[in-house]
Design a protein that fits this description.
The structure is a single chain. The chain has helices at 15-29, 52-56, 68-77, 94-107, 126-138, 158-163, 165-190, and strands spanning 2-7, 33-38, 80-88, 91-92, 115-121, 152-154. The chain is α/β, with parallel strands linked by helices. It is built from 7 helices and 6 strands, in the order βαβααββαβαβαα.
């Protein structure tokens, strides 16, 4: 089993990465592989709504000049996803927002793969950013993994994040919860428990 952790910060070794490392460490202790994937600092296109990802039916975005399609390839092998972002103006970073918009639209989401989000902030705006990120999972039939408090850390540097003792505890708890859910899913498969029956989508427009 493997969990892919996405660092949505422009700072590869910053506060968000430090929080993700704490989560990954606990998952790895449970004999589950982890990988932290940094979205990079190059510009990331927003979704153009062109619909080509649906027309080509390859589960890829037509724009291949950034890391979105690299991520989508990795998710084919991953069993779960954790997304981390710094808080910018009480929201997730612009880079990770554009990244996830295209990744989830092109792939159709990652149904039945557990998902979680973590956010890092200096002081405020964390709950709004966390709610924003969680919506990618809850619209995609992905079990949402929680912790003992909201999945956030505070600090203006990795060293300050380490001083947020409660935040670091929350990250470790999240890692253990993710590992437990993945092992429970594996045990269910071994016992013959089928995935939920998938019903065809019904789209209702409110203005006709």
């Amino acid at each position: 089993m493997k969990v892919l952790l996405v660092n949505g910060s422009p700072h590869e070794k910053g506060c968000t990465n430090r929080a993700l490392q704490e989560v990954a460490k606990e998952i790895y202790k449970q004999d589950i592989d982890t990988e932290i994937f940094h979205i990079g600092t190059d510009p990331i296109r927003g979704c153009m709504g062109c619909g080509m990802c649906r027309k080509n039916k390859l589960g890829r975005c037509i724009f291949g000049d950034d890391k979105v399609n690299v991520f989508l390839k990795k998710m084919e092998e991953a069993d779960a996803l954790i997304v981390g972002s710094p808080v910018h103006y009480a929201a997730a970073s612009g880079g990770i927002t554009s990244f996830l918009d295209r990744a989830f639209y092109a792939s159709g989401g990652f149904a039945n793969k557990p998902g979680a989000a973590i956010v890092s902030c200096r002081r405020g705006g964390s709950t709004a950013a966390l709610e924003q990120l969680n919506k990618y999972f809850t619209i995609s039939n992905m079990p949402l993994i929680s912790s003992s408090y909201w999945n956030m850390v505070h600090g203006n540097s990795p060293a300050e994040v380490e001083q947020d003792l409660e935040g670091m505890m929350v990250m470790r708890t999240l890692g253990r919860n993710m590992a437990w859910i993945l092992k429970s899913i594996e045990a269910g498969k071994a016992a013959g428990v089928a995935l939920p029956e998938k019903e065809g989508k019904v789209r209702t427009n409110f203005i006709r």
